Amino acid sequence: MRTGTRWLKPANIFRLFGFGLFIYLFLGFMVLPNWNTLTQIFNTTVKTVDPATGLETVRRDPWAVIRFFFAGNMGKYVLNSLKLGVFLVVTVNIVGISIVLLTEYFDIRGARILRLGYMTTLIYSGVALVTGYLFLYDNNGILTTALVNAYPGMDKNWFSGFNAVMFTMTFACTSNHMLFLRNAIRSIDYNTVEAARNLGARPMKVLWKVVFPTLIPTLFSLTVMTFITGLCAMSAPTLLGYDSINPEIVRLAGSSIADEAFPQARAALLSIILALFTIILLTVLSAYERRGHYLSVSKTKARLVKQKIHNPVANALAHVYAYALFIIYMTPVVMIIIFSFQTYSAIRMKTLDLGNWTLLNYFGQADYSYLTSRGTYRVREGAVSGVFSNADTLGGIRTSFILSAIAAAAACVIVVVAVNYIFKRKKTGALVEYALLFPWLLPTILICYSYRTYFNSSDVWYVGNTNLYYMHNVRLLIIIAYTVTKLPFSLRMIKAAYYAIDDELEDAARNLGAGGLTTMLRVKLPIILPSVLAVFALNFNALFTEYDMSATFASSYGTTYAMVMQSMTREEGLYGFNVNASGRRAASTVFIMLLSGLVLYLVYGVGARDLGERLALRGKRRARRAKWAARLLPRKKAAGGSR
Amino acid sequence: MIRLENITVRFDRFTALDDISVQVNEGEFFTFLGPSGCGKTTTLRVIAGFIQPAAGRVMVRGRDITGVPIEERNIGIVFQSYALFPTMTVRDNIAFGLKIKKLPAAQIRDRVADIASKVDLSSDQLGKAVSQLSGGQQQRVAIARALVTEPAIICMDEPLSNLDAKLRVQLRNELKHMQQKFGITTIYVTHDQEEALTLSDRIAVFNKGVIEQVGTPNEVYNHSKTQFVCNFIGDINRLAEETCALMQLDPAKAHYIRLERVPVNPQPDARMALLRGTIKSREYYGMYIKYTVQTPQQAVRSIVRNDGISIYEPGQEVSLGLNPLNVMSYPLDEEESP
Prior knowledge:
By secondary structure, chain A is mainly alpha-helical. Chain A contains 26 helices and 4 strands. Chain B has helices at about 40-50, 90-100, 105-120, 125, 135-145, 165-180, 195-200, 215-220, 225-230, 240-245, and strands spanning about 1-10, 15-25, 30-35, 55-60, 65, 75-80, 155, 185-190, 200-205, 210-215, 235-240, 255-260, 275-285, 290-295, 300-305, 315-320, 330. In chain B, the strands form 4 sheets. In chain B, strands 6-7-8-3-9-10 form a 6-stranded mixed beta sheet, with helices on both faces. Chain B has a 4-stranded antiparallel beta sheet with strand order 2-1-4-5, covered by helices on one side. Chain B has a 4-stranded antiparallel beta sheet with strand order 15-14-13-16. In chain B, helix 2 (about 90-100) packs across helix 3 and helix 2 packs parallel to helix 5. The interface of A and B includes residues 507, 508, 518, 523 and 616 of A.
């Protein structure tokens, strides 16, 4: 009896409810939809006609898709994706390592400005970046047009297919290098560099023998992640025209059996192939991580001092290389900003009209008159409109903002609660951890494709027999997909932050009478809050401009920013509509950059300050106010006195 | 006041505490002393309630608190890292326990101000973040936070180990002063014998999960009960067989003599055995000088007051005086027994 009442304690009921909810979410939104996709492959039906009787029979053929794979050209997509992954590993690492060394290790003039330029991909990524590159380098892009005018022999279609995807993704995928490799290089103990120099090693030898070995674990992780990014690339191949796996999956998912042979099963097979590659790579990565890392054993770490390049030729070359990369990174950003203030005619003519600036791409509307084939002028009312005046663009931004914010917050909340549990209960905690890492084994596209097919039915009992891929419900489906795909990353980051909490803090809180929940909310959460906010910001920024999931869930009820951007690329000026689509796209990209930059600043700049720094700043503000008051007060007094 | 009765703690197959019993009296400054991994912090955590013993009882003022939850034990703790909450100001850190007890705001304010003045924290410092304070100030915050809830006992887990040598000595004195001022029963954990000897009313010396000796600093230093205690506390010479034979000591026992009981070139004394040798090395400590003298029997170390006159050079011939009355003798360990 006593045991029974003990079990009914609120904490136990809460725990039981939490566990039940977790199992429901794991089975319902991670396992079952993906399992359904897997089985689709083996549920293929084929029609056969008996030549003698002419009778048509339908039978299940589990291996039909596999045979189709080997017989048809499906393998091309896999090979293309592999090729992209392999090439990207080389180019991204070359550029990524260079920019980190140039800004953090070598003494390069203007390193702070260079760093800002290299970091623009943090606020300018995804579909915005790809469309930005298209705006510049497309066959009628601004830079291509300028180059063709200067060199008439140049191929104006140079920016398409594999080369364009490689070029774009090489610079788009260095964000992780700037985040993680930069941290790794900054945490190097400078005493080890000094020791090597003291023992007679030359600077390059030090770099190769002392610095690089400590970076290898980070570089290995980045290499694997880059390869997976290449393999699962979506927005660049779709918009720049390259036949890789993901765009093909989305195409097949939207295709019907009347158009081609078992498209859904083919999409499922391609998804599974992607999943297999991902699983193999992540297994290799985790096995490598388990081998342990090079850790500094120093108790008094010295801060890295930038290394001067003493050879004048090498120093000059390093500077030229650094600024050439800076130009590549900054050109799209600067051009996008400039052209967002240009008129539609200037953009159409691909010329910079310095005497004619406009805010029309941001605010307001204007009519557009054009000459018809009958030789008469026709006016299309409101055909020129700004981001904040165009219902479609604004709607896309609003949808993406809300869905991304909810999903980014939900992923953080789920992970914070789970990590607290993982650290308390070692055995069951490990199960929770694996469950949260599960989506990492599956490519995003597989999860989204699975959701789209599995929940596009009114027969799924555990969601109340509601079709989640129907009308407004699709937004909920997008939120769930966004949340699920962000769980593994959030877990890794927040768990790392949890390790920083000293066990004695929890003991101290409990010793002072705090229960588990109070300790969590008042002691542990404030400590990890900067990391949680950082994860929220990174999740939010990534989801805001993501393309893969939006494309898979494409629906008029869930038109996200990425889809609006894509439609702006395709429908510019058709029949006198969307006349300034390019300008509006540029303006919306500027807006997104500002928003993402603001989020990153608030999180990394303001949110990362510890209490001491916040109090010191508050003290400075108070002193400044007191100084102003002291300056003003004598004047008032003097004025009062003279009266 | 506190009585530990036959406490045993096991972590899987490892026995961290093996049937230990000890009593701490009201108002006493009691120290758990021992090397790393000997079980002293485990004992402290058993008292605080962080570890549940496999066997035995924890009694406080006659009440069995073995099964009482941590938050209801009324035992204050000063942690090794101080465990100050980094996201709270000094004031909020000190007030944390009072807020948990839902005391009225005015009472919390008064009690925080009162304890802060007692531990010499200014009102300006109360508004600071803990990261803006020095190590010594942080220690005072940790003590104030532990004391403000008026606990029956305060436990300190190596609170000086993170500080530099000079500050450690300064704060050691302050700690003793504060303990006397508050008159609170204090259990102090340290591996530093000097700290234990200077601070404590009584000391329990731990080794491999058992208590080897409980006594006053004088008892554990001058009348060490076991070979481990006499080796662990202070510096000591173990006398070789030849030396023991010269001094006519029982060969079936292990014999030790402390360094300060070995005078160099002593006044003639009939009770003393004299060993002649040459100075092998000299360590200069300012107030004291430590010599290692190589005699035909063994190398013997001696520490003598630095009077500025009788300072011997390495290679110089000297004589050492060994008085059998100063020798501490113990039965041989199992592996040493013939």
